[in-house]
Structures are given as structure tokens and as C-alpha cells.
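Consider the following input, taken from an annotated entry for Alpha-glycosidase (Paenibacillus dendrobii).
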Amino acid sequence: MLLEAVYHRPKLNWCYAYDGHTIHLRIRTKRDDVTAVSAMAGDKYIWDQSMSYVPMHKLAADELFDYWECEIVPEYRRLKYGFLLENGPEKYWMTEYDFLKQPPENPDRLFEYPFINPADVFKTPEWVKDAVFYQIFPERFANGDPSIDPTGALPWGGTPERDNFFGGDLQGVIDHVDHLSKLGVNAIYFTPLFTATTNHKYDTEDYMQIDPQFGNIETLKKLVGICHERGIRVLLDAVFNHSGRTFAPFVDLQKNGENSRYKDWFYIREFPIAVQDGIPTYDTFAFEPLMPKLNTDNAEVKEYLLKAAAYWIEEADIDGWRLDVANEVDHEFWREFRRVVKKLKPDAYILGEIWHESSPWLMGDQFDAVMNYPFTNAVLDFFVDGIGDARNFANAIGKQFSRYPRQANEVAFNLLDSHDTARLLTKCDGNKDKMKLAAQFQFTYTGAPCIYYGDEIGMTGGHDPDCRKCMEWDEAKQDQELFSFYQELIRLRLKYSALRTGNLTFLSAEEGSANLVYTREDAKDKIVVFMNNAAKPQNIEVAVEEDSWEDIRSGEAISARLGALNIKLPAYGCVMLRVV
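Applying the prediction step yields:
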């Protein structure tokens, strides 16, 4: 047993309160090095009467490690614990201090979860577990009110450029809510709606005003009301890392320089502010001089931005915020942001844009979730780009899942493309079967899937600005078969809770193989998913305990033979079977 590989620490994702009564414990061991792990757990004040061994199950694995987990409901909301590691006859007891070959004589040097204090429990919005998001880039979704088109707006459907406009607005979304209801989505994520000079609106001019080319606050209220009547939640985009060049405090700074009362609203390295060899003398988003970075440690800046965060919840009843460039803003600002937002709307969804491992933001005091780009990369590598085999993919998924507490995984924002990337169908070189297979994993995985507008009807597009084409509303030019496919995926996900929050176990993910088999299981259902990520048909066989199954799409009855299911799949095929 390689003890050097064994890892655990209290709190974070290793020992945390899942709710007000339940504690999850996790421990890491070298892959395939330990055959069984148990938690020895009890109350520190009545250890002899309360201690018991709780078996742990293998939660996930990656290329180096196995991750084990168990759930404990302590009678008095506190826990003293250690671990028993077994590899056949070999046994070690792990304490906070050491590895022992005999059980510890007393609990003094074990790990401890002191008490489940309600204020410390990481609570995420329940509704997000059941959400299917649809991302809308407002300027390109639909033009519902030509009277508010920006000057120089082009006819709908032209070639997107970084600086052109087509007149998309909020009335256009209202006009096409039926499309969203028909598709089956129950949440919308809008890129920024506030006053700005660009078509993407990430250069905010006024955080308290809807951009006139999109409508006004009354239009937004109407849209949110219509969405809520249909069971659709609404998420807005906040750009609190930086403003735009026309933001009034920055305009004043440009005019008055070091004498501006707003000079401390930004990070100025040198006056007068200028751009020298392509580098501004003030901090910005990237090196973009038109997007000066805001000083969120400044009391006035903080007050203004938190007021904006509250305003749109109070006035328009929005359901949460997506936070742009979230990892470049200080943690203390986000802690205050969470307190303000959750006080107004406890089930508001706080989603950070972070493209990397995000544990520091997912400890219950800042975000509910992040945009799950490690998931995105793993899915695209395997299903789209053919990088790595099934084992590599399962390792990447296991590693990512093990990083966060379960409640954060359950509301993770799982996307495969967006306004920042090439479109999924384009990434698949137009191969719809590959696109569908990737989407089927997305919709049968823990977390909230998101469809980028137009993907459901076969829209294509390379990197920005090509991925921001005008939505195609001519039904003759829409891929209706693909639309039906997404409808069915959404229907199945919402029908079976196991596909949303059930435990995931890989039954087959072998080195050198393109085949993938995994189960999603909860108290209601057990579903096994077979995937063939190859360009030719494959027979896939996997051992199962149950005899009777049904195809959840067709309803066809399937029987296991000699303790195994044998499924023939076409190229890039997928079958989902449920125990009956």
C-alpha cells in the first residue's frame, strides 16, 4: 500500500456538510492500490458508545488516484473520524497524525468536524439541479422592435463582424418564447443587457440601465414575467471586473486625470493615462484600453456595484447572476456580493466565469457554481477532437468531479460552446452524429446543461465573431430533426432524476477503446448508458446484476444474458437502458 499517495484534510471538498445534518467524507488513495476503505467515526464526547465503521465507496478515479466517499448523519451534528485502509490482509488506520497498524487507542488524534453550524453549510439553489439553460446573445437572437435599432443596423442574417449590429432586442426574445417552451428549456442565460457601446455589451456604460437598443426596464420586466409564467428562470450577466470607456467615472478620469475624484475607482499605474506600446498605463481586462479594471476594494465602487446587483433582483425579479472574469475580482467583494444577493433572493443562482479549477470560490461563501470548462474540455477532447481514449476521458471526468463538494457539482454550468468559442457543430466538422453523442453525455451528467442559441437547429460558426450569427428563424432553413433530438434529450433528463443527480459509475472505459458505458443511479432508477465514440459500428458487452431492462427512448424490452448486456451500436451511437 503506497501510503505516500493517501490524502485527506478536514473541510474543503474532503470533509464538508452537505446539508444541515449530513457530512460527506472523502479520501484519496493510489489508483487500484487499496481494496476497501472505511471511516471510523463517532462523537468525540461519547466515543466508546458511538464509534462505528462506515464503508466508503469509490466516488471517482483519475490516472493516478482513487477517490472514496461516504455519507454520515451524526446524531449530534459533530464528528470525530479516521480511516481504515485495506488491501487484502494489509491494514492501516489513518489518524490526523499518522498511519497505524493497530486501531488508535483513543480518538484524541483523529480528524474532526467540530459542528454543523447552519451558517457554514454551503447551500445551492435546488431549482438549478433541474435546470436546462439556453444561452442568448441578445443582439443576434431576434429583432422584435426595429424602432430602437442602433444607427447603421444591418438587415437580419448578414455576416457578423466584431463591430456591426443587426438589431436584436428583448422584444425579439418575447416574440420567440414559444420556441424556448417548445424546445423544453427552463432557464435562460443572457449575455449583458446593460448600456454599452459594443454589440456584446461587455464594456458597461451604465449598470443601472438596459441598453436602449434592447429596450428598457419595462421590457425586461415583461420578459421575466412571461418566462416565470412558463417556468423559465432568467440569469443576467454582470461585468464587475471592468467597465467600459464610456462609464461616467472613467470619462471623468480621462478628462481630469490625477484630479478626478474617481481616480481610485480604477488601478492607475501612471498619469496621464495613456497606451504605451500597446500596454495601457492603467489595469484593464487583458490589455484592452476600452475596458478599465474596477477597484472593487474601493468603498464607492463596491457600493455602486452591489446596488446594481440588488436593483435588478428587486425591480425585475431576475433569478441570478453570471459573473464575467470572476477570478480576477477579489474574494472579499464576492463574499459581500453573495450576502447581498442571497438576502434578497435566497435561491438566486450565482455563477462565476472561471475557466480553471475553482475550489477557492466554491466553499459556500462566494459562488454557487462556475462555468465548468474542465468538463467542456474533457468532452470536446474525447467526443469531438478524438484526443485520448475512454480511459483518459473517464479520468478527466473523475478528477473534475472529485474537486468540488457534491452540492457544487449538482449545479455546475455544463456547456459545450458559447459566444466565446466556435459552435459545437462546427467543431464537429458538420458531423451531427458526433455532435449528438457529445450532447448526450452533457445531458446525462451531473450539473445543468446549457444549449447555445441556434445549436438546436443546426447553426454553425467558427470563433468570435462567426459564432455570433443572427438566429435563423426561417423554419425551412432550420434542422428540425436536430431540434427534435434536443427536445427528446431535455424530456428524458427532466423525466429521470437519476440523469440529473444520481451517482455516476463507469462500467467500461478502457485504455485504447472508444466505447464508454456508465450508470446513473438514484433511489428511483438505475440507467446504464452505452456510447460508441467510433466511426464504425461496435458491439459492447458489460456485466450487470439485473436481468430486465428497457430502452428509455423506444420502450423496447431488453434482457441480459448470462449476467451481461450485449449492445450493438452504430457509429457514434448511444443507447440508454433502465432497470425494470
